[in-house]
Amino acid sequence: MASCVPLGKLKRSKSWFKDFAYNPKKDQAGDVRNILLIVATLIAAVTFQSGVNPPGGVWQDTKDGHVAGSAIYASREADFYVFLIFNTLALSTSVLVIMSLTYNFPFHLEVLVATASMLGTYASAIFAVTPANYSFRSRYILTAAACLLCYEF
């Protein structure tokens, strides 16, 4: 049986959201940048990890038409590509935010090199877990992500 929420509580429940919304009059730019960096870093970490360890894991042995090290989820081709597209889009967008927010910071070159290395690792992991007959299409996904990042630089 569904419970009813009094109208007064409903109005109050919406007002709390306004207290946390961005307000340029009270929020300092440095604090906002730091929060965005934290959020973008968390998104990058989660998407990187899910690309390296795809949902469902990888096959442990080579038999019954699959190869050890290939993503189990890739057996559902359309679903796997939806996952790859959105995961790669989230990773590349979060990296774009990170690089934009740290532009002209000390050690920016080092952050750029580390980020490029991380993206190279992500790309090689995607190729490693994607079955050989799918790898051609995976290149399109990774190329699209690279184009997004090249737009920034």
UniProtKB/TrEMBL annotation:
Domain PGG, residue spans: 31-124
Pfam families: PGG
InterPro entries membership: PGG_dom
Entry keywords, A to Z: ANK repeat, Membrane, Repeat, Transmembrane, Transmembrane helix
Localization: Membrane
Principal subcellular localization: membrane
GO cellular component, one term: plasma membrane
TM spans (from-to): 80-101, 107-129
Membrane topology per record: Multi-pass membrane protein
Protein name per Swiss-Prot or TrEMBL: PGG domain-containing protein
The species this protein was found in: Lithocarpus litseifolius
